[in-house]
């Protein structure tokens, strides 16, 4: 009967040569029976032990089982590489030494030789113009099984993707515009809002950013207009009906379009009077602090 020494000796010999050593046809079957006998012996010893998890004989048998399994696996992997090389030679009608293979290895060898011969013949047919390019193996679902979407379906899919991809932009714009914003004037026919242009690095600082502190009593406050300069004190009819809130900007906001139809270019430490519908979202998200 096989034992651990035989397994380790076979592995050692296989490592020392580039050719396959001869093994009996039932080698792997015998190795499996040997490992199963070790497991059965370990179970019997464990039943008789007071503490099977700390019994020396149980631990020894466990180590023998692990060693035997690892030895057989390493031996097999070493031999498979040699079998693949030998099969490629046999498929090219070159002499090989295929004696001493186990039953499992003999089946693998024959399968490899057949596959290589078939593939080699197909390649030669392609080169001779007698066959088309290699046919890829079909997957679980071939491409022909999936019907092409109709134009209406394609349009629906593209619309869903566009809506999903622009959701974050729509939310941000709604926060800045406020509930009273003129949505139609800022929305493209496709539904995507046109983002405001980012401030240029070389743009001169606005007058509002030159004074980071609240103005002294009696000092006129300057608002930031759409062109970066001070806004005119005379507002339109829409401005006169808009509630306004005085805030200090605490974060780089950039240009926003107010509900009073004016654009504000907001930078850190700017002190501005904004429409309440625009100022409230900035205060709520921590980009501004209310001064009044």
* Count of individual domains: 2
CATH class of the largest domain: Mainly Alpha
N-to-C span: 95 Å
SSE run: HHHHHHHHEEEEHE
Strand order of the largest sheet: 4-1-5
User: How large is the radius of gyration?
Assistant: 40 Å
Number of helices: 9
CATH topology of the largest domain: Methane Monooxygenase Hydroxylase, Chain G, domain 1
Globally, the shape reads elongated
State the helical fraction.
40-55%
Main beta sheet, described? Answer: 3 strands, antiparallel
Description:
- With 292 residues, the protein is mainly alpha-helical.
- It has 2 domains: 124 residues, Methane Monooxygenase Hydroxylase, Chain G, domain 1, CATH 1.20.58.1030; 112 residues, Ribosomal Protein L9, domain 1 (3-Layer(aba) Sandwich), CATH 3.40.5.
- Helix content is 47%, strand content 8%.
- The strands form 2 sheets. The chain has a 3-stranded antiparallel β-sheet with strand order 4-1-5. Strands 2-3 form a two-stranded antiparallel sheet.
- The chain starts with a helix and ends with a strand.
């Amino acid at each position: 009967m096989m034992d651990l020494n035989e397994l380790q000796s076979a592995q050692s010999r296989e490592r020392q040569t580039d050719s396959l050593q001869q093994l009996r046809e039932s080698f792997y079957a015998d190795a499996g029976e040997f490992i199963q006998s070790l497991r059965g012996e370990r179970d019997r010893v464990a039943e008789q032990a007071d503490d099977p998890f700390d019994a020396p004989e149980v631990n020894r048998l466990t180590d023998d089982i692990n060693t035997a399994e690892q030895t057989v696996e390493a031996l097999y992997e070493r031999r498979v590489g040699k079998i693949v090389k030998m099969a490629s030679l046999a498929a090219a009608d070159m002499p090989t030494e295929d004696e001493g293979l186990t039953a499992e290895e003999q089946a693998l060898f024959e399968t490899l030789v057949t596959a290589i011969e078939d593939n080699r013949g197909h390649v030669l047919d392609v080169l001779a113009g007698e066959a088309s390019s290699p046919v890829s193996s079909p997957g679980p679902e071939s491409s022909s099984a999936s019907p092409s979407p109709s134009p209406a379906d394609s349009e629906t899919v593209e619309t869903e993707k566009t809506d999903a991809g622009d959701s974050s932009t729509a939310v941000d714009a709604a926060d800045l515009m406020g509930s009273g914003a003129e949505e139609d004037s800022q929305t493209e026919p496709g539904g995507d809002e046109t983002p405001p242009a980012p401030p240029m690095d070389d743009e001169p600082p606005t007058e509002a950013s030159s004074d980071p502190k609240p103005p002294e009593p009696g000092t006129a406050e300057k608002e930031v207009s759409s062109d970066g300069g001070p806004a005119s004190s005379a507002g339109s009819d829409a401005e006169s009906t808009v509630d306004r809130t005085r805030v200090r900007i605490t974060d780089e906001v950039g240009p926003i379009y107010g509900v009073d139809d004016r654009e504000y270019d907001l930078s850190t430490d700017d002190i501005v009077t904004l429409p309440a519908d625009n100022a409230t979202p900035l205060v709520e998200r921590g980009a501004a602090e209310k001064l009044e």
